[in-house]
Structure formats: C-alpha cells, structure tokens
C-alpha cells in the first residue's frame, strides 16, 4: 500500500520527523536517527566556535545531507527579523536548500510561538522563495492563515516544547486538520510512544519530536519505539477505529453455551 | 586588520574571507558567512576583501529540534 507523506514536492515514506538536539554525542545522534527511520531531520544554525579544535566533529558528517532531508530550524529566534536572517544563513550553509522550519518564540519560559512575528516571517520567507514548515500554536484560524499564505506544512504544538506532556488539546488539532490542505505535523510536546501514536490515530500527517528520544534513558530504544508508534498510529487511522460505546458488546457468540 | 568575528575581536593576517577561514582552522568546513549582516556566498569567499572594522558572522549546523 502506498501511503507516503508529500512535502514541498518530495515524497517521504516515514512520517516521523526528528531533531538532533540534546544527545550525548554525535554517535548517539546518528544511531537514534537511523533507528527512527526518519527521513527529515532538523538542525539548528549557530555561531561556529572560534578557536575550536580543527578536528572537532561536525554534525553534518554524521547526519549526511545526501541521505537525509536536512530541515534547519530558527529555534532561539524571538523576532521575525532574526528568524528570516537565520533561514538565509541556513540556505547559504546548505548550498541553496530552501526548506526550513520556521519557529519564532515568544518567551523563554514557555517557548510558545509568537504568532504576530511568525506570520510576518512566514510571509517574508515565502516571498523570498523559501518553502516554510511552520511551528505554530493550535489555533485553527492561525493555521489556516499560514496555509493560505503558502506554508508547505503547518506544525501545531501538542504541548510546550520539551515538556513531554503529550497532546493537550486534541480537539483543536482536529479542527486544524478538518480544514487543512497541507500536511499537519504535530511539533512539540510528545513525551513517549503513545503520544505519537495518538497524534497519528487522530489523522495527523506526521510528528516532529526531539526530546522524547534524546532525553529517554535509552534514546536509541526510544527511537525504535517511536518508529513503531508512528506506523501503528497511522495504520489505526487508515483502518478506522470502532465506535465508542457506553455498554458492553460481547465478542464471543452468546448462543450454544453449555448449561 | 581588526575584525569582529562572532562577537570577538580578531586580527586577520590576510585580506579575504578564505584567509579568515583558514586562519581559524575552519578550512573545508560547511559554513555560512555574513559580513556586516550581508551573506557572502561561498563562491565569493576567495575574492571578497574584508575591511578593517568589518563585523563577521560564521555559522554552522548543530544539533537542534
């Protein structure tokens, strides 16, 4: 059965998008990401350490852009201007690669998206030819605006970044999905495999996560769990779940019982 | 000449961005460079003559979500 994810003209078999932050070292990063089966991998753009050891390893030596779709993010940007600048640096860094994850944050305590700046940055980036996957809140009206503007994927939070609280408002995520014509990817909040499965069972097109794997006691094992959860949740969505009922309904025939 | 590179003051022995990258032992690395907030494409690093007082940013990819 062909059931692939399409983003900005590219086809992906995996619906798990994964971050590269917070791992113990690059070896663990590489192992976790390989195990997860993810094809889209986020990275951050930061100042190079001046005076660093010339032999210091580089993330992209472990996570090759030849193998993965690298998705540079604008994490840490608190204004549209900073986010746009960051995306332009990423495009230069990655030889013209124009797919980006836009996130413009509101404050450090919540890392909640600043929607005013997110909308402004999305507009500027799209006008400049970027393909924008956008981190946003779970407001269906904002999601629609971002889609209408031309974002290639809308990525509402399940709960706060790094919180591991799961999907706190599934009803809003459903409202977003009902209207959407671009992939809806739950970004942020997934804490364990069941959270990812719930997102997929609801009909989300994908899940983007980082901490749930990197901060697990055994990240590589959790990466394996996430792969399965995403696949199981997707299959359950496609299969269509049974209706919920208030009362019991026996699975075994009621006739022919020896008395 | 004196430059500000990633927020630190630095004396460049040379003139071009490629000279700077080499001096910082970053040769061959995957980088992006801004001079005075304007991106200078890789293809121009060898020709781009830096000026005294230029503010340079050099970035790379690191782990992130």
UniProtKB/TrEMBL annotation, chain A:
<keyword id="KW-0704">Schiff base</keyword>
<dbReference type="GO" id="GO:1990107">
    <property type="term" value="F:thiazole synthase activity"/>
</dbReference>
<keyword id="KW-0808">Transferase</keyword>
<feature type="binding site">
    <location>
        <position position="162"/>
    </location>
    <ligand>
        <name>1-deoxy-D-xylulose 5-phosphate</name>
    </ligand>
</feature>
<comment type="pathway">
    <text>Cofactor biosynthesis; thiamine diphosphate biosynthesis.</text>
</comment>
<dbReference type="GO" id="GO:0009229">
    <property type="term" value="P:thiamine diphosphate biosynthetic process"/>
</dbReference>
<feature type="binding site">
    <location>
        <begin position="188"/>
        <end position="189"/>
    </location>
    <ligand>
        <name>1-deoxy-D-xylulose 5-phosphate</name>
    </ligand>
</feature>
<feature type="active site" description="Schiff-base intermediate with DXP">
    <location>
        <position position="101"/>
    </location>
</feature>
<comment type="function">
    <text>Catalyzes the rearrangement of 1-deoxy-D-xylulose 5-phosphate (DXP) to produce the thiazole phosphate moiety of thiamine. Sulfur is provided by the thiocarboxylate moiety of the carrier protein ThiS. In vitro, sulfur can be provided by H(2)S.</text>
</comment>
<dbReference type="GO" id="GO:0005737">
    <property type="term" value="C:cytoplasm"/>
</dbReference>
<dbReference type="InterPro" id="IPR013785">
    <property type="entry name" value="Aldolase_TIM"/>
</dbReference>
<feature type="binding site">
    <location>
        <begin position="210"/>
        <end position="211"/>
    </location>
    <ligand>
        <name>1-deoxy-D-xylulose 5-phosphate</name>
    </ligand>
</feature>
<dbReference type="Pfam" id="PF05690">
    <property type="entry name" value="ThiG"/>
</dbReference>
<comment type="similarity">
    <text>Belongs to the ThiG family.</text>
</comment>
<protein>
    <recommendedName>
        <fullName>Thiazole synthase</fullName>
        <ecNumber>2.8.1.10</ecNumber>
    </recommendedName>
</protein>
<comment type="subunit">
    <text>Homotetramer. Forms heterodimers with either ThiH or ThiS.</text>
</comment>
<dbReference type="InterPro" id="IPR033983">
    <property type="entry name" value="Thiazole_synthase_ThiG"/>
</dbReference>
<keyword id="KW-0963">Cytoplasm</keyword>
<keyword id="KW-0784">Thiamine biosynthesis</keyword>
<dbReference type="InterPro" id="IPR008867">
    <property type="entry name" value="ThiG"/>
</dbReference>
<feature type="domain" description="Thiazole synthase ThiG">
    <location>
        <begin position="7"/>
        <end position="253"/>
    </location>
</feature>
Automatic annotation (TrEMBL), chain B:
<dbReference type="InterPro" id="IPR012675">
    <property type="entry name" value="Beta-grasp_dom_sf"/>
</dbReference>
<dbReference type="InterPro" id="IPR016155">
    <property type="entry name" value="Mopterin_synth/thiamin_S_b"/>
</dbReference>
<protein>
    <submittedName>
        <fullName>Thiamine biosynthesis protein ThiS</fullName>
    </submittedName>
</protein>
<dbReference type="InterPro" id="IPR003749">
    <property type="entry name" value="ThiS/MoaD-like"/>
</dbReference>
<dbReference type="Pfam" id="PF02597">
    <property type="entry name" value="ThiS"/>
</dbReference>
<dbReference type="InterPro" id="IPR010035">
    <property type="entry name" value="Thi_S"/>
</dbReference>
């Amino acid at each position: 059965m062909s059931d692939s994810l399409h983003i900005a003209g590219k086809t992906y078999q995996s619906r798990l998008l994964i971050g590269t932050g917070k791992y113990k070292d690059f070896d663990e990063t590489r192992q976790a990401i390989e195990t997860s089966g993810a094809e889209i991998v986020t990275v951050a753009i930061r100042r190079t350490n001046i005076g660093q050891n010339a032999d210091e390893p580089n993330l992209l030596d472990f996570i090759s852009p030849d193998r993965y779709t690298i998705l540079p993010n604008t994490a840490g940007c608190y204004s549209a201007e900073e986010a746009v600048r960051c995306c332009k640096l990423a495009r230069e860094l990655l030889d013209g690669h124009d797919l980006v994850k836009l996130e413009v944050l509101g404050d450090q305590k919540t890392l909640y998206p600043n929607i005013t700046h997110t909308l402004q940055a999305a507009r500027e980036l799209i006008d400049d030819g970027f393909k924008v996957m956008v981190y946003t809140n779970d407001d269906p009206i904002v999601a629609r605006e971002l889609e209408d503007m031309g974002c290639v994927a809308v990525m509402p939070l399940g709960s706060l970044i790094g919180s591991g609280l799961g999907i706190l408002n599934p009803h809003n995520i459903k409202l977003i999905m009902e209207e959407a014509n671009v992939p809806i990817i739950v970004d942020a909040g997934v804490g364990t495999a069941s959270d990812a499965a719930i997102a997929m069972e609801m009909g989300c097109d994908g899940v983007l996560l980082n901490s749930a794997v990197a901060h697990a006691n055994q990240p590589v094992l959790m990466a394996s769990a996430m792969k399965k959860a995403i696949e199981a949740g997707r299959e359950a969505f496609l299969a269509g779940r049974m209706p919920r009922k208030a009362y019991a309904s026996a699975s075994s025939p009621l006739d022919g019982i020896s008395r | 000449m004196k430059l500000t590179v990633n927020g630190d003051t630095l004396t460049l022995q040379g003139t071009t961005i490629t000279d700077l990258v080499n001096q910082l032992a970053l040769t061959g690395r995957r980088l992006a460079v801004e001079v005075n907030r304007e991106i200078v494409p890789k293809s121009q690093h060898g020709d781009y003559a830096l000026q005294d007082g230029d503010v340079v940013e050099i970035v790379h990819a690191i782990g992130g979500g």
